[in-house]
Amino acid sequence: MIFRKFLNFLKPYKMRTDPIIFVIGCTGTGKSDLGVAIAKKYGGEVISVDSMQFYKGLDIATNKITEEESEGIQHHMMSFLNPSESSSYNVHSFREVTLDLIKKIRARSKIPVIVGGTTYYAESVLYENNLIETNTSDDVDSKSRTSSESSSEDTEEGISNQELWDELKKIDEKSALLLHPNNRYRVQRALQIFRETGIRKSELVEKQKSDETVDLGGRLRFDNSLVIFMDATPEVLEERLDGRVDKMIKLGLKNELIEFYNEHAEYINHSKYGVMQCIGLKEFVPWLNLDPSERDTLNGDKLFKQGCDDVKLHTRQYARRQRRWYRSRLLKRSDGDRKMASTKMLDTSDKYRIISDGMDIVDQWMNGIDLFEDISTDTNPILKGSDANILLNCEICNISMTGKDNWQKHIDGKKHKHHAKQKKLAETRT
Predict the structure, then answer these.
(1) Is position 49 within any domain?
(2) Cα separation of 305 and 308, whole Å?
(3) How is residue 136 annotated by DSSP?
(4) Taking CA atoms, which of 29, 228, 319, 362 is between 20 and 30 Å from 161?
(5) Containing domain of residue 281, as a range?
(6) Domain boundary at 267, 297, 315, which?
(7) Is 412 a domain residue?
(8) How many other β-carbons are positioned within 10 Å of the β-carbon of residue 161?
(9) pLDDT tens-digit profile of 12-66?
(10) Residue 139 CB partners (closer than 8 Å, separation 6+)
(11) Which of 52, 253, 217, 203 is nearest to 131 (CA)?
(12) pLDDT tens-digit profile of 383-392?
């Protein structure tokens, strides 16, 4: 086995034509390090696809790669947004800028290496026709908003989430039933699509899928695409993520947050600013809002510790969402006869093998071997889009949720069974 690898190493590479490599996956799995290793060996430049790292500042809180760690490799799409600007920057803006960057990188005879964990943004680059276009979605200027976008949000500012969802249901019931009422951004987006195009979002989605062999719209944008999805066992990953928060504190997280707050205090308590979506900032707002003299008191220490615990929790939840995306949005595209990206999951549970195992995947692919995950033996069936996104209501517990898998977990849970039992007892008494 070792001898065969040695022979493969000696064999000259048959470089693929215009290759592009995506290193995506769960947070805390070593994506940045592998991206640098790939770029160093094959002559590449890294494009970050981590929406939390788009904003200037918060280098520790968002775990940005340092100059030393980048080892001289050019990195793009990091620290370019002003945190004080409202959240007009979106996936359409990212896609347009990134596609232009890819052209420029290739013009320099370099390979684009897309690295990060914001999978929705990565998907917009990987596939064509994957997004619904509107007049405002084409605006790539992150520092300004169109009048229609601004006026729409201003008009809806005093409207509750439920009222917005009810309005969408009247216009486009199919789309509404795939969205939770509290998912305000997605509800507003579906309304915006109808107002600007005169066509329901559900109709546009059906049109996108009409000539495809799977239930997701979009065709592979670049023929020679490799997707490495990085993951680890839940136990290992959770321990690693918790340790990363402790490391951030040692690196000076407190001082960084205070400096950031002092510069942007008037914006920090408004959710309309995109930076407030960053894990590592929003959790510490109660502590930051204290008078500076109170931050080092017992109450201040308690609030800071609560912020750290919330960061750990939210990061673990984020990793689970990234994992679900891989299964529901990427692997299920393996159905059908279309040209697919080479796709491989990399288990990073053993941190000492991350680079070597990752480079083995890249070397095989660069040598002309197409790689695909075998999902035929998967014990957890991959849900089709309608099943994964359908909105379901539990009248017994008075809550709503999206996805049949979440529904099944809910009705199998102790809380639902307890409420169902209480309801049954109440009915027998009447």
Answers:
(1) no
(2) 5
(3) G
(4) 319
(5) 240-315
(6) 315
(7) yes
(8) 14
(9) 445 688 999 999 999 999 999 999 999 999 999 999 999 889 989 999 999 999 9
(10) 88, 92, 93, 145, 146, 149
(11) 217
(12) 444 454 456 7
